[in-house]
Amino acid sequence: MPTSRIRQIRPISGGCYGYPYLDGESADDFESALADLFADLRHLADLLGVDWGEAEYRGQGYHGEEAVASR
Questions:
Q1: Whether 47 contacts 8, CB under 8 Å
Q2: DSSP for residue 49
Q3: Residue 70 DSSP symbol
Q4: On the chain, which terminus has fewer CB atoms closer than 10 Å, C or N?
Q5: What is the pLDDT of residues 10-64, one digit of tens each?
Q6: 32/21 Cα distance (integer angstroms)
């Protein structure tokens, strides 16, 4: 990966730590927080050239496996 791309990624990933994704207590606040997080992850995937659909598909599989294992 070119160094210039790595420099672009660091501010995005580092900026997430201070961003208040969840600042309320209602279910709608949590849903909004997840939507913000997903949007940021999509931006990161775009920057890295990651196929979002494939990553999401794999994530659904991982979630299914973990949900079954936790029962």
A1: yes
A2: T
A3: T
A4: C
A5: 555 545 544 455 565 666 677 888 888 889 899 999 999 999 999 999 999 999 9
A6: 8
**Tally of structural domains, the chain:** 1
- Tell me the one-letter amino acid at 67: A
**pLDDT score recorded for residue 4:** 52
The parent domain of residue 17 ranges over: 3-69
pLDDT at 21: 58
37: Cβ–Cβ under 8 A, 6 or more apart, which residues? 16, 21
CA distances from 59 to 1, 9, 26, 65 (A): 24, 21, 26, 10
Q: Answer whether 12's CB lies under 8 Å from 40's CB.
A: yes
